[in-house]
Amino acid sequence: MTALRFHAANLLLIVFITGCTTLAPLLSTPTPAPTTPASATPQPMPTSTVPAEEPQPVLLRVWVPPQFDPNADSPAAELLRSRLAQFQDEHPAIEVEVRVKSQEDILKVLSVTMNAASEATPDLIALTYFDMQEAASAGFLHPLEGLTSILQDPDWYVFARELGEYQNTKYGIPFAGDVLVMVYRAGAFPEKSESWETLFASGTRLIFPALEPGALFALSQYLSIDKQPPGDPSAMTLEEETLAHLLRFYERGIETNTLLQVSRETQTDAQALQVLRAGGAEIAVVRVSSHIQNPSGEYQPLMGLDDVPYTIGDGWVWALAGSNTEKQIIAVELASYLVESVFLAPWTEQAGILPVRPQALSGWENAAVKTPLNEVLQSAHPIPPEPVIELLGPLLEGALIRVMNGEPAETVARSVIEGLK
Question: Partners of 381 in the beta sheet?
Answer without folding.
Answer: 312
